[in-house]
Amino acid sequence: MRRRAALLLPAVLMARPVKAAPAAVNFRLIRNGTAVGTHQVTFRNLDGGVLEARSLVRVEVKLIGITVYRYSHETVENWRGDRLVSLGSRLDRNGTPGFCEARAEGGQILLRGTAGEARLPAEAAPLTWWRRATLTDGGPLFDPRMGQAVAPQLTRTALPGGGVRVVLVGGEGADIAYDAAGIWVGFATTGEDGSAVRYERA
């Protein structure tokens, strides 16, 4: 019995607890005071210490009961630690498609999308909002809707309780908030028609 226990001991010592995947993040999109869509981010752990983040945005704007605008954007990211391993994104903007694919290879991020192709540094990250380090570490950024490198102006402000607010200037612009634990808790931007859009936790 002692011999068997001794043989099992190394395996027990080598086994490490698996860190739980982050909880899902859910928002309602509010445009001019009316809910027009949802934004959900879900997570799961994959083999090899990879974290998968799946973001899904759905928007439907109606006028007198008739749908006048639809928007759907799904992005799947795979991360190992603080480095992006791969990304796949599909966009439907009122019938106009877009895509983005990215993968880590040879110490770079190979980016391909509707906007063309590019090679970015290995620390490049997509503007998918859920990851605070993307906007606070100062690394290269790209837009996952069309696969385009971007360099927006960012301002960062500490929030009460240890959170942080990041304001992005460029394109539609964005105002993003994270709590002290790094969880994405707020967002506001300008719609394509110039309307004010804000996120409300669902």
Can you characterise this structure?
InterPro entries: DUF6134. Residues 1-20 form the signal peptide. The protein is mainly beta and 202 residues long. It has a domain at 20-151. It is 9% helix and 59% strand. The chain has helices at residues 2-14, 132-136, and strands at residues 25-31, 34-46, 50-63, 66-80, 83-93, 96-105, 108-113, 116-121, 125-126, 141-143, 148-150, 153-158, 164-169, 174-178, 184-190, 196-201. Strands 8-7-6-5-4-3-2-1-16-15-14-13-12 form a 13-stranded antiparallel beta sheet. Strand 9 (125-126), helix 2 and strand 10 (141-143) form a beta-alpha-beta unit. The longest helix has 13 residues, at 2-14. The protein is globular. 21% of the residues are buried. Mean pLDDT is 91; it is low at 5-15.
Quick synopsis:
The protein is mainly beta and 202 residues long.
Topology:
Blueprint: H1 2-14, E1 25-31, E2 34-46, E3 50-63, E4 66-80, E5 83-93, E6 96-105, E7 108-113, E8 116-121, E9 125-126, H2 132-136, E10 141-143, E11 148-150, E12 153-158, E13 164-169, E14 174-178, E15 184-190, E16 196-201
Parallel strand pairs: 9-10
Antiparallel strand pairs: 1-2, 1-16, 2-3, 3-4, 4-5, 5-6, 6-7, 7-8, 10-11, 12-13, 13-14, 14-15, 15-16
